[in-house]
Amino acid sequence: MSAALLFLLLATVNPHVEVIEDNRFKISAVIINPNSPTDHYNAQMGIALKAKQVCIALNRGPAVSEGTLHLDNLPPVKGKKKSALQVSEFYSCQLLSPVPKI
Fold this sequence. Notes:
single chain; alpha+beta; 2 helices; elongated; disordered N terminus
């Protein structure tokens, strides 16, 4: 992924991280235009990227999704008629076990 595309992705999608348990967290992003496939794609990519960043910051293994994407309607953003959509996904960081010595 190019740096310009990565910057654009993070600028349009501002994922929010909520810690659920020690190694479990929920990442949410708001989609202003729910009819846009590009906005959905950017939100999901932003969520996955943020999960990876969280696991790296915690010095743990790779981010692993629980496999379910949650969608919630939000009230319309000020000045818009359409309601926004919140996309959320639960993640945990795979704990790396030491390699056994033979």
